[in-house]
């Protein structure tokens, strides 16, 4: 009986889960002057859910004179099944930034970039 049960259990872990898409919306900056949007797709699933997809950031602050500045890139993040911790990498115009936050609505943390500036970032997953 055990010999039959073990392959069934192992195949349940190996079976690919259906890919899930999420909308990511957020605001970065002390005053929330950058609007972040992304559509991500689940890429892996075992002890954590991993997502990745194209990212767009638009400067929505009042100091824009020639229209809003826009930047594009990619976001990759993992949500731990055990702790609900979200760890992300944002690649925006050649610059790689990191972000980490605990589960909340919204996820709230600090985005750290190589230029030394850390800015608040709030993310909602829909």
Name its key features:
1 helix, 126 residues, mainly beta, eight-stranded antiparallel β-barrel, globular, Lipocalin
Overview of this structure, please?
Helices cover 10% and strands 56% of the residues. The chain has 126 residues and is mainly β. It has one domain: Quinohemoprotein amine dehydrogenase alpha subunit, domain 2 (Lipocalin, Beta Barrel), CATH 2.40.128.120. The chain has an eight-stranded antiparallel barrel. The longest helix has 13 residues, at 2-14. The termini are far apart. The model is unreliable at 4-16 (pLDDT under 50).
Compact overview of the structure:
The protein has one helix at residues 2-14, and strands at 21-28, 34-45, 48-59, 70-80, 86-92, 95-101, 107-112, 118-125. With 126 residues, the protein is mainly β. The longest helix has 13 residues, at 2-14.
Element layout with pairings:
Layout: H1 2-14, E1 21-28, E2 34-45, E3 48-59, E4 70-80, E5 86-92, E6 95-101, E7 107-112, E8 118-125
Antiparallel strand pairs: 1-2, 1-8, 2-3, 3-4, 4-5, 5-6, 6-7, 7-8
Please report the distance between the alpha carbons of the first and last residues. 43 Å
CATH architecture: Beta Barrel
Find the CATH topology: Lipocalin
Q: What best-fitting shape do the alpha-carbon axes yield? A: globular
Beta-strand content: over 45%
Task: Tell me roughly what share of residues is in helical segments.
Answer: 10-25%
Name given to the CATH homologous superfamily: Quinohemoprotein amine dehydrogenase alpha subunit, domain 2
Rounded mean pLDDT score: 85
Which H/E pattern describes the elements? HEEEEEEEE
- The secondary-structure class comes to mainly beta
Strand order of the largest sheet: 1-2-3-4-5-6-7-8
The largest sheet is: 8 strands, antiparallel, barrel
Number of strands: 8
């Amino acid at each position: 009986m055990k010999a039959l049960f073990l392959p069934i259990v192992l195949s349940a872990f190996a079976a690919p889960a259906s890919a899930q898409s999420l909308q990511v919306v957020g605001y970065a900056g002390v005053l929330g002057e950058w609007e972040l949007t992304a559509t991500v797709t689940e890429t892996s699933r075992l002890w954590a859910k991993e997502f990745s997809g194209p990212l767009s950031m638009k400067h929505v602050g009042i100091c824009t004179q020639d229209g809003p500045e826009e930047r594009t890139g990619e976001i990759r993040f993992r949500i731990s099944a055990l702790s609900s911790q979200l760890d992300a990498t944002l690649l925006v115009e050649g610059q790689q930034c990191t972000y980490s936050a605990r589960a909340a609505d919204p996820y709230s943390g600090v985005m750290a970039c190589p230029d030394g500036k850390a800015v608040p970032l709030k993310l909602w997953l829909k």
